[in-house]
Design brief:
The complex is a heterodimer of chains A (406) and B (249).
Chain A: H1 3-16, H2 18-55, E1 60-65, E2 69-70, E3 73-74, H3 85-94, E4 98-113, E5 116-125, H4 129-132, E6 137-140, H5 145-150, E7 154-157, H6 159-165, E8 176-179, E9 182-190, E10 206-209, H7 210-218, E11 225-230, H8 236-250, E12 261-265, H9 266-309, H10 311-319, H11 324-361, H12 369-395, H13 399-403
Parallel strand pairs in A: 5-10, 7-9
Antiparallel strand pairs in A: 1-11, 1-12, 2-3, 4-5, 4-8, 4-11, 6-9, 7-10, 8-9
Helix pairs in contact in A: 1-11, 2-9, 2-11, 2-12, 3-8, 9-11, 9-12, 11-12
Chain B: E1 3-14, E2 17-29, E3 34-38, H1 45-52, E4 60-65, E5 68-69, H2 75-85, E6 86-89, H3 101-110, H4 117-130, H5 146-158, E7 164-168, H6 176-192, E8 196-201, H7 204-207, E9 212-217, E10 220-226, H8 233-247
Parallel strand pairs in B: 3-8, 3-9, 6-7, 7-8
Antiparallel strand pairs in B: 1-2, 1-4, 4-5, 9-10
Helix pairs in contact in B: 3-4, 3-5, 4-5, 5-6, 6-8
The chains are: A alpha+beta (406), B alpha/beta (249).
């Protein structure tokens, strides 16, 4: 028997029982629609987290001092003083995968402009810092290497600081503010960066040459962190290896000794966050998958009823020359047609539901090709798997008994 | 020789008991014969017919159909035999519901790879014309009378040009007038188209239309006789018509 004939028979049988076929499909439609919508929501939130983190800086690598053991006592990781000038010099001279470097020395305190004051964080950095963080200036200029050498009292202010110190909307550039009683001349205004992934206001910041903080405020030769930028995405992990090598050498760490610093990349941060939303996606997909299985059982149930109901038809077909395999294929194809039609409708419905979610709830969504292909494949397999057994039952009927079935 | 049956036995197990439905049956049918098989219920005539239609296999004995020992064939080969060599007419018509007359007749050809959809349609239409149902082609079985439904079933049995047509009480569900119409069609098939016909019935009245009658009782052939006074269904119908005219002038 030709497949075309089988297809025609299956379509005819489905058309003859429109309502029943539709209800059977409904299980599959809901299952597939749910899988696609759920995965789209999961993927969407994952992607939005990813892009938020990337916005924090391009290929950014952070080096922070790590707890080390001094006289048998583990030191507090944040206050350990291991990163300093020679490290930056060594990295600048030896690390081939790094394009920009900036130390970080920060201090908290009150900034004053006439009657207005605001407590903020003064961060000492190099002139490369803004490019590492991919943070453009709105107005003014960035301080130069010359300013760094001379520990000039100049600064760049973030939007939050500017609006609090200049509440009447004056242009802050060119004005002088006082931070811990030291006058700083504002030479630039930073663009708005917004909140980071942790909800901190990134615009509540004052940037100044790191030497200025070291010499005039903190009186230290150490850095709290070093920021670096890898040449490109692919070289990030190379850059991390290089940094580890160079810093171990410059800190004279013996083989077997722990690093006294940690190197983190954006990729690690991304994976930490996305793993959470990955779990969410899997969870949603599993729930949706269960509904797909339930839909499949619906198909099996109806196919069983259909086989019993059409016992006489099966007997007749056999008596005019249908082989067992013809009957098997007939019912199998009917099940597959039902599940695939349901699948197609489900795909359309899933995409529509996803659109609805992003339109009305403003949730980030992302329909991936793989989720559509996957749910469609599952649908086909469901049809074959749940259709096979009833079809096999039909093909094994005895034609004489089947013909006399009432 | 279309049918050559030798020492055929068929036993069924009914719980503990063995039932001998057919007990040592032998007969032959030559091409172009019109044979009726008579017998009361339980005489084994349906069992015999099922074996002759290759739907059932004998417990022992041989059955040569068109020169081939079909009792040795596999299930799939038997399916091919129904399809190419045999046509079957049922008492209850057994048409597919909500399927047009034409599609019902096309059914056996659906299982024959040699026919394209176009050829299948043409052949089915031609066969329906032969049973004088050309104007009812697209009717559903529920829109047809019993006699018309049986004619669709006959067309279905003929569509694959079988070497032999088997009928199981084909007039059992019909009134006598319609029965005669069907018998007329069957006689036509036999005489004009040379089809071999095996017709099972328990009505002696119907058996008179055939040239030979085999009578079964308790699984054995008790009588196998030629009929010297074959009734002509066309004449019977004509008489019936004139009778009706006399009663309703």
């Amino acid at each position: 028997m030709k497949i075309v004939n089988l297809l025609r028979i299956a379509l005819r049988a489905i058309r003859r029982n429109k309502m029943r076929s539709f209800l059977t499909m409904l299980g599959i439609i809901i299952g597939v629609g749910a899988v696609i919508a759920m995965i789209a929501i999961g993927q969407g939130s994952k992607q939005s987290i990813q892009s938020q983190i990337t916005a924090m800086g391009s290929n950014m690598i952070t080096i922070r001092p790590n707890s080390n053991i001094q006289g048998g006592a583990r030191m507090d990781a944040g206050n350990v003083q291991t990163l300093s000038e020679p490290d930056v010099t060594a990295l600048r001279n030896n690390a081939a995968s790094i394009s920009a470097l900036s130390p970080l020395v920060s201090a908290r305190g009150q900034a004053i402009n006439g009657p207005d004051n605001w407590t903020s964080s003064l961060q000492g950095v190099s002139s490369d810092y803004l490019s590492i963080r991919s943070w453009p200036l709105k107005e003014g200029v960035v301080f130069t290497d010359q300013d760094v050498k001379a520990a000039t009292k100049v600064c760049l202010v973030g939007q939050t600081v500017a609006s609090n110190l200049f509440p009447n909307g004056d242009d802050p550039v060119g004005k002088t503010i006082r931070f811990k009683n030291i006058p700083f001349r504002i030479i630039g205004l930073l663009d708005k960066k917004g909140e980071n992934a942790f909800g901190q206001d990134q615009d509540d910041i004052i940037l100044t040459p790191f030497t200025t903080v070291q010499k005039r405020i903190s009186a230290t030769i150490y850095y709290q962190a070093i920021f670096a930028s890898a040449i490109n995405d692919q070289s990030t992990s190379n850059a991390v290896d290089e940094i580890q090598q160079i810093l171990r050498t410059s800190h004279r760490l013996q083989k077997g000794m722990d690093d006294d610093f940690t190197v983190r990349t954006q990729a690690e941060l991304i994976s930490t966050f996305t793993s959470t939303s990955q779990i969410l996606t899997v969870l949603l997909a599993v729930i949706a998958g269960i509904s797909l299985v339930v839909g499949g059982i619906g198909i099996m149930n109806i196919m069983y009823v259909s086989v019993t109901e059409r016992t006489k038809e099966i007997g007749l077909r056999m008596s005019v020359g249908a082989r067992g395999v013809d009957i098997l294929m007939q019912f199998l194809i009917e099940a597959i047609v039902i599940s695939i039609t349901g699948g197609l409708i489900g795909v359309v419905l899933g995409i529509a539901a996803t659109r609805g979610v992003s339109l009305f709830l403003h949730w980030p969504t992302l329909i991936t090709q793989s989720s559509v292909v996957l749910s469609f494949m599952v649908c086909f397999i469901t049809g074959v798997f749940f259709g096979y057994y009833p079809a096999l039952k039909a093909s094994r009927l005895d034609p004489i008994e089947a013909l006399h079935y009432e | 020789m279309i049918v050559d049956i030798r020492n055929l036995r068929r036993e069924f197990r009914m719980g503990e008991e063995m039932v001998r439905a057919l007990n040592d049956i032998s007969f032959t049918i030559t091409a172009g014969e019109f044979v009726t098989i008579m017998g009361s219920s339980g005489s084994g005539k349906t069992t015999l017919l099922n074996i002759m239609d290759c739907l059932d296999r004998p417990t022992s004995g041989e059955y040569f159909l068109d020169g081939v020992d079909v009792s040795q064939l596999s299930k799939n080969e038997l399916a091919g035999y129904h399809n190419r060599k045999l046509g079957f007419i049922f008492q209850a018509y057994n048409l597919l519901a909500r399927t047009s007359a034409l599609e019902n007749v096309e059914l056996p050809l659906m299982y024959n790879k040699k026919f394209s959809p176009r050829q299948r349609r043409d052949k089915a239409m031609e066969t329906l014309k032969n049973v004088r149902l050309a104007d009812r082609m697209h009717h559903m079985p529920s829109q047809l009378s019993g006699g018309q439904q049986q004619r669709v079933a006959i067309a279905r049995a003929l569509v694959n040009d079988p070497v032999m047509v088997l009928a199981d009480e084909a007039t059992g569900n019909l009134d006598s007038r319609t029965s005669y119409e069907i018998m007329m069609l069957i006689q036509e098939l036999n005489e004009m188209h040379g089809k071999t016909i095996v017709f099972v019935t328990h009505e002696p009245d119907i058996a008179l239309f055939s040239k030979r009658t085999i009578t079964l009782r308790d699984g054995k052939i008790i009588k196998d006789a030629n009929n010297n006074h074959v009734r002509n269904a066309k004449e019977v119908l004509a008489n019936l018509a004139s009778l009706t005219e006399i009663q309703n002038p």
